[in-house]
């Protein structure tokens, strides 16, 4: 955090100055470790074993916050009799279909619940139609619950508040984690038992009624074949300890781009519509009603999905969207499986996808298996790159690695490339959503230079020109483009669309055109229009709330009048859980919001994340639905049962409980189960440049004996597009390097400041060698493991140059999110520079041959 | 320069007679540094902004003089950052005004070996033509007898470095065009 979010880290230091203990768990010793009380180096890719070990410690030693767990989590819920855990099935859950690499989650449900017929029938229908495609797995449906909301069906689950029923979630959890002992943690993670116990004690001593513990993570947790389950493991732990919805608690995602949260909320993502409404899948005869019936939860705020969706369709298609035509629901294009960035690259290789827009991203070096990305681009008819400088994604046809190796010749590449210079943040109005879900407006200071334009300008005018070209068309294909509302006021000589008018559309309007102030005002009858329901209120009273800048020094510690956070300017999500079931704070020193019986409403330091007048003793009538069906003690209002989920009955593709599996490429066998890898991880097409490696005790595994991990440095940003062209930053970090221990340097004859060549089954890169004690060797399963650290900012262009670490990566993805496993893989490292020209390709082929790699290696479920 | 001013300009004299006997501050200050002013002092106005790098969202003050950005500093008012910026945020003046930024449209024709110049309006018109054609070529009304109403001909990547309003228009336009392969850095 001190490396990659240094200014945010000042608050960790403030906490430390007030007595907090800081624990840093990372394979490397970094600036964060230097300032932490405890640094725990562990093997990259073993965090679920580590977190599972802490969960086991909490359960075995009864360190959980019992009152919180019984009232606010699903610990008492009783599971169906036919559920089988990894304990029963050698490391997999019931419902596994190994041939199609997917789970049927019917047996994971609570006892007493019936999955809604429409949903079941629909997916059944879908499966029949897609020949082994595995819709649930490949469609990122799990990620569609970025704001909670997986449906759990009809009925009330059976529960046992004594937590003793053998099939209750609590007892299942206890059995599941019993094998995650300190000894197992030591063997799998390489963390000595004393150090591990110290962490357990620090965390549990600092959790409960009077104290809270927070977890912060970044892509070191998400970029795995089990990435979502990493976060889930932290969720289980934090829910057991009562650390959710309370000040100083939580699980904090430290996101890495200025508006990566915003581009998830208002998604430029294939599987989502704004506000985490799922993109519809292709189903015969499915209209708006069937879609909502299939997707919406019965209880909680996702019970209002129709309201959110109809309001979005009204924002998109205005007067053309009517009750008679299902509000143009048919205008939405339909998915048939996954269409993620990596499948798009495959579609380019197959010649299906012909045109490509790239906005401020650098996939030619920034995506996993960068070579496949470039090969995909070389097969396009045309592409448009919008950026500040000539990044590798703009110039690969001229000077990319394949030109150097002779695999491609510029004269043979038919791709037409448009490079359009982009405006900087100082040259346009707009809002970023930061990692705390806070929208902050930045104001235009100057006009963009030359032909540089904002992406708002580009997108608006591209749409305008396309609409002009299609004007008068009666082809039904063109109706959605011609009917879309596209009339934003233009400003200045450049005809820049008014960004605030777009924000107003996102916020939403009432029937009379006045701005809405809360998503509670949205209607399902088409009388309201709202571009993103969770952002409703950001333009309340016609005022740009995201531009509020009351100095922090003039406010309380919540600073609620600086900018605006979704939803409803609440700064801590699910903060009803900061009070006990009766509505009183669990403790005075951790008070955040509470029930004021005299006033008959929730009050406190933050905006309550709860219906303001719903009393703690409120019990919903039996026929209530959506938000009305939440009781006064259901703090997790986006969840279909209002509870924090220790166990996930629905919404995940790869299991209801986090389970340790080895990474796709690992030098080690899975010590806990015979099942080596996540059985439903997503493997992309068997391309010759995307080979996987043998693992553990398989023959050939020893060809790649070292664990590698990629990461960022303070002085650069992502794939370098915004940092490698800056003289100051290039001087601070002038070239690509790898970090290795003195022991590994001795083992492989590597010299500090000399060169190393690093090889995987996909590619080869060279890097300067940094020999440092910061990369400590670990003892894993009785032998010494060396890890190789690879910052991934580079490519051949700019002032600071080097090979791209992403050349080494495979495409084996988390099945929920389609995120690649960049944080734990296996490599070989040797002294000297990499070969040039065709010899470079030959070297990788030789390695594959030595390891006995073919198209089937590493692909078993 | 009067005698008095001349004597006062002598650092040792100031050190012996003034408030800075150790000669570390006022006594050691030269005439030149006395006359220096920060470049932000002459700014015509200050524009409130947000750092474009990571998602912490540090506040920035953008100083503008004669229609140009002259300096970018941390905004002390921000309860998030309290005026601090990291090395990247501190370098954002170079990001926005540096000479490595391209200001003109560049075009590489199919099988071409070099960049060419292209007028922005021409480029926009050419791109629009290509979108219309690729969209039509990749159109699918149905897949396996289920209605899809979509195109696989065009794709878009990127958004995490963009504004919410920009992401909103991209998703809206591409969805209306029937394109589904819309992705950004959140996936990688």
Keywords:
heterodimer; A: 861 residues; alpha/beta; Rossmann fold; Barwin-like endoglucanases; 3-stranded parallel β-sheet; B: 188 residues; alpha+beta; N-terminal domain of TfIIb; 3-stranded antiparallel β-sheet; 3-stranded mixed β-sheet; 8 strands; 32% helix; 25% strand
In short:
With 861 residues, chain A is an alpha/beta fold. Chain A has 25 helices and 28 strands.
Oligomer: heterodimer
| Element string of chain B (H = helix, E = strand) | HHHEEEHHEEHEEHE
Beta-strand percentage range of chain A: 5-15%
Q: How many structural domains are formed by the residues of chain B?
A: 3
Largest sheet of chain A: 6 strands, mixed
First-to-last CA distance of chain A: 35 Å
Name of the CATH architecture of the domain at 682-850 in chain A: Beta Barrel
Please state how the strands of the largest beta sheet of chain B are arranged side by side. 1-2-3
The CATH class assignment of the domain at 682-850 in chain A is Mainly Beta
Number of helices of chain A: 25
Describe the structure.
The complex is a heterodimer of chains A (861) and B (188). Chain A is of the alpha/beta class and 861 residues long. Among the domains of chain A are: 1-35, no CATH class; 341-423 and 449-479, Rossmann fold (3-Layer(aba) Sandwich); 682-850, Barwin-like endoglucanases. Chain A is built from 25 helices and 28 strands. Chain A is globular, with a radius of gyration of 27 Å. Mean pLDDT of chain A is 95; it is low at 116-138. Chain B has 188 residues and is an alpha+beta fold. Helices cover 32% and strands 25% of the residues of chain B. In chain B, strands 1-2-3 form a three-stranded antiparallel sheet. At the A-B interface, helix 12, helix 15, strand 9, strand 10 and helix 18 of A face strand 1, strand 2, strand 3, helix 4 and helix 5 of B.
